[in-house]
Amino acid sequence: MFNLLKLHLNKILLIISLLIISIFVSLSLGDIKSWDRIDWLDVAGEGGCAIALATWMIFILGSRPQGRVTDLLTLGLGFMFLAFWQDTLDEFIQLPNSLLWDQMESIAMPLGVMLLTYGLYHWHQEQLALNYQLRKRELVFREHRAFDQLTLTGQCEYISQQLASYKNTSRKQSLVFLMLDINDFSHFNRQFGNQEGDRLLLEMCELILLNLRQQDLICRYAGDRFAVILPDTSLTQGRQIAAEIKQAVKHFAFKVPQSSNSQFQNLSIGCVQWRTEHNNDLALESTEKLLERANFALLKDKPIHLASVSGLA
Ligand SMILES: Nc1nc2c(ncn2[C@@H]2O[C@H](COP(=O)(O)OP(=O)(O)OP(=O)(O)O)[C@@H](O)[C@H]2O)c(=O)[nH]1
């Protein structure tokens, strides 16, 4: 958040400067009120609103890149904040009634609301475009607590929810479920550090996403393991997609600062089918059983055949 705030240093400095100017102008043109003339309820109400608006600005500036939408939102909130700030100052400093400065908040507030509304409209447009790109990460619901902070994909329970909702809709085609795991990822972590490991996980996730269709969904199952749901897909199609993902990962030259050589990874993938009611199977198998089968298929795909070691075979 602080890195993003640094990007907006000029806006933050402008707002702080306006605050200071408004204090100086009010002090030079008005008289400080005596203690008993201060309406503390107004101070709490107007000051509280000013603090709330300043907090909104910090959240917006701390979470958004530079650009038109951020400028509009900040300007809108900034004007509204200045209006409440001036209102709060008026509780402490008596300005002459005839003074135009005293009317400042009557102009700043509607101007702020208009700019904020215009900014929100463009934010809405921007979000629609982002939603389109995010579809492969979040099909129907957004709850940031259920999302992995590193890859911004759903976590384990999100997969179960999506599978359960798929089961409740009557589909003609089967679903294919992929369980993907980076081979020897702990070795990569040991060699280049966890920070580079995090970066690799993120880029792997992006690469897998690029090889998926619009209707597919990727989630981070655990550690270096991802799950992919391919709705309305035959087993042949699912295997084809899995093979394409493997090829893409195999040829992905990942650069690390510690080495001049690119690092290449391999994925193991378990590919299992969930048949529809038309094939008489979907109702029979629980999501737990499907995940168990996918994990087992993944083990079978590992270079060293762990399935035989674990006795699952
Ligand atoms: N950098 C990083 N490492 C993680 C994260 N989550 C889990 N890990 C590491 O991922 C590694 C997973 O280890 P294993 O399950 O043995 O997987 P592996 O080394 O790829 O071994 P195989 O799957 O048998 O090929 C462990 O070393 C974890 O510490 C994470 O969020 N970031």
From TrEMBL:
Cellular component GO terms, alphabetical: plasma membrane
EC number(s) per entry: 2.7.7.65
UniProt-listed GO biological process terms: cell adhesion involved in single-species biofilm formation; negative regulation of bacterial-type flagellum-dependent cell motility
InterPro entries: Diguanylate_Cyclase, GGDEF_dom, Nucleotide_cyclase, Rev_trsase/Diguanyl_cyclase
Superkingdom of origin: Bacteria
Transmembrane segments: 12-32, 44-62, 69-86, 106-123
PROSITE patterns (alphabetical): GGDEF (PS50887)
Protein name: diguanylate cyclase
Organism, scientific name: Oleispira antarctica RB-8
